[in-house]
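Reading is simple: each integer encodes one residue's backbone shape. An example follows:

___
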Amino acid sequence: MMTEMKLKKTSALCTFRWIFVLLSIVVCFAGEGLADVRVAILPATNVVAPGATFDVEFSVTEAGSGFNGFDLFVGYDPAVLTFISQPAISQQGPLMQEACENTPFHVFQIAPDSTSLSVTYVLLCAGVSVSGPGVVYRLRFQAGSTEDTTQLKLLEGTSFYNAGIIISPLVTEDAVVDIVSGTSTPPEPVETGLNLRAAPNPFNPQTVVSFDLPRPGVASLTIYATNGRKVITLMDDFLNSGLHRVPWNGQDQSGRQVASGIYRVRLEAVGLSELRSVALVK
């Protein structure tokens, strides 16, 4: 009798172990095809006048893993920036809106101390997902009344998922807000398709400048101070089409460390030009 009970117990334990193994394999295969998602707060640098309102977009910058929902946790300094509420439909990005006609699951909350806000957004169309690139969400802020430099940050907890499976790794890029008197609009040129960006931003001690070339050609990447002085030419060479990444360690052409502040990154390539700003923080 005891032997029979032991055999039944052993059999049940083996069955449980096989179920656990099979579930592990299913989870493994479910997540195996997932690549990373890259989400950035754009523009990377917002140059605005004191008291001005401005919009930022949360964009998936590259085609990658499909997702049908996300959690955004956004941090900001309430002494410098004030969140401006808009109708919920205005805050939703076109990448999500156009993917599904059903009303999404959409929760928006502001922290009691107003230092952060959170967004939970899930498509409610069965089997529907999106992969980017495109805008998933929008927010509006008002700048403070005095000149200052601050950040908008994607905080810990930010995640993208598909059918409940979290996509990893998630690469995030923050934004800088530069409040400058006499400025009415950001001095950013029209987008050209080079997709110039830098991460991390703000940075210390190094950032990586990335861009996409639509075709082979000569590309020149130069860092300038805000007064127009050239700091360093990072690259001036013939490149193949595709994604390119160039690091900058915060040094000038002579190898000296530059001061904290805002710097302009200019890319000129294949007859096109784009400008972005980065902030070195020490």
About this structure: The first helix runs from residue 2 to 32. The two ends are 75 Å apart (CA to CA). The helical segments are 2-32, 88-91, 94-97.
